[in-house]
Amino acid sequence: MKALIVCTSKSHGNTRKVAEAIGSVLDARVVDPAQISAAELGEYDLVGFGSGVYWMTLDARLREFVDALPVGAGQEAFVFASSGLPEPGFRPYLRNLGDQLVDKGFEVVGGFACRGLDTMGPLGLVGGLNKGRPSADDLTSAREFAEQLRGRFA
Questions:
Q1: Which residues are in the Flavodoxin-like domain (predicted)?
Q2: Structural domain range at position 41
Q3: What percent helix, strand, coil does the chain show, rounded to 5?
Q4: Which residue, 8, 77, 81, 129, has fewest beta-carbon neighbours within 10 Å?
């Protein structure tokens, strides 16, 4: 199995830590959307798409990258995110990303989310929310998620 992770991570690098944990199990290359072309995605059996959550939405760079993808031929994908707060039911950003990928011809085979340090807006005044996250336990959970994905190709 050949895997790739397309990840945007800013602020504190929370999502990159999660991507690296997943990538370590999948032996996956982790790239920013600007580092890969849509054509190159076809070289991979499994592609992960991840972002931090900013004001209840995923990073625009990832959303724009997915929007620009041509319709493919059933490649497997997974989605993941780190956020200060849980995904609210009225704003399902991971499900929306998964739906976008399905519309592009991907088969979405899983999703992962965990808390991350959040210093957006007024949270920065008090040192942030979720200090120390993603934690060692969060990264272990990310690796366990990746083990499940890898099992699909065994």
A1: 4-150
A2: 3-151
A3: 40, 25, 35
A4: 129
* Helix H or strand E segment including 51: strand 46-54
Query: Nearest Cα to 54, choosing from 16, 21, 8?
Result: 8
Q: What is the DSSP letter of 52?
A: E
For the segment 55-101, what is each residue's pLDDT rounded down to a tens digit?
A: 778 899 999 999 999 997 679 999 999 876 677 777 777 888 999 99
* C-alpha to C-alpha distance for 72 and 38, rounded to whole angstroms: 10
Peptide bond connecting 134 to the previous residue in cis, omega within 30 degrees of 0: yes
pLDDT digits (tens, 9 = 90+) for 102-154: 999 999 999 999 877 675 666 655 666 567 678 899 999 999 999 999 998 87
Segment 6-35, tens digit of pLDDT: 999 877 788 999 999 999 999 999 999 999
Residue with tokens 């849980």: 86
Query: In total, how many domains does the chain have?
Result: 1
Q: What CATH number did the domain enclosing 114 receive?
A: 3.40.50.360
